[in-house]
């Protein structure tokens, strides 16, 4: 059985580097055991020797694990993860520097996704780090 829950706005605001006055929480569906269903897919692992691309690897991960709250229309906490341009324009990604990119810091700290929501596998976070380190190209 699933019920609606509201994420902690202050925790989200701190994790995303926004102000507490900005709406950082969003309604999410969680089951009664506080475990959310894992999305059906989470990006496609690049074949050996193939580059990690935004369209085939990174965007599906972001859509599956972050897109419900951080999309072009919702932008929870002022964060839009719906496109490569939005990631850069909102300051969530610093092309060429994964360590300075808020999205990496937030994921590695466990501050996002919110409690009760599935977390992207470490492999997907590694893909994200690599894509950012390679310049966060729109490919």
Primary descriptors:
mainly alpha; two-stranded antiparallel sheet; globular; disordered N terminus
What would your notes on this structure say?
This protein is mainly alpha-helical. It is built from five helices and two strands, in the order βαβαααα. The chain has helices at residues 9-16, 54-65, 84-89, 102-109, 122-133, and strands at 2-6, 27-31. The protein has a two-stranded antiparallel ribbon. α2 crosses α5. The radius of gyration is 14 Å and the shape is globular. Mean pLDDT is 76; it is low at 1-41.
Query: Count of helices?
Result: 5
- Work out the strand percent: 5-15%
Going across the biggest sheet, name each strand in turn. 1-2
Task: List low-confidence stretches.
Answer: 1-41
Q: What characterizes the major β-sheet?
A: 2 strands, antiparallel
Order of helices and strands: EHEHHHH
> Level of helix content?
25-40%
Q: Any idea what the radius of gyration is?
A: 14 Å
How would you summarize the topology of this molecule?
Layout: E1 2-6, H1 9-16, E2 27-31, H2 54-65, H3 84-89, H4 102-109, H5 122-133
Antiparallel strand pairs: 1-2
């Amino acid at each position: 059985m699933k019920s609606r829950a509201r994420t902690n706005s202050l925790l989200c605001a701190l994790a995303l580097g926004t102000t507490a006055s900005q709406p950082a929480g969003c309604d999410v569906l969680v089951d009664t055991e506080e475990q959310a269903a894992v999305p059906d897919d989470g990006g496609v692992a690049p074949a050996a020797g193939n580059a990690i691309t935004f369209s085939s690897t990174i965007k599906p991960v972001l859509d599956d694990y972050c897109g419900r709250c951080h999309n072009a229309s919702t932008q929870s906490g002022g964060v839009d993860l719906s496109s490569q341009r939005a990631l850069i324009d909102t300051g969530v990604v610093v092309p060429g520097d994964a360590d300075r990119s808020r999205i990496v810091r937030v994921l590695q700290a466990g501050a996002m996704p919110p409690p009760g929501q599935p977390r992207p596998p470490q492999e997907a976070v590694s893909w994200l780090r690599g894509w950012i380190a390679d310049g966060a190209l729109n490919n």
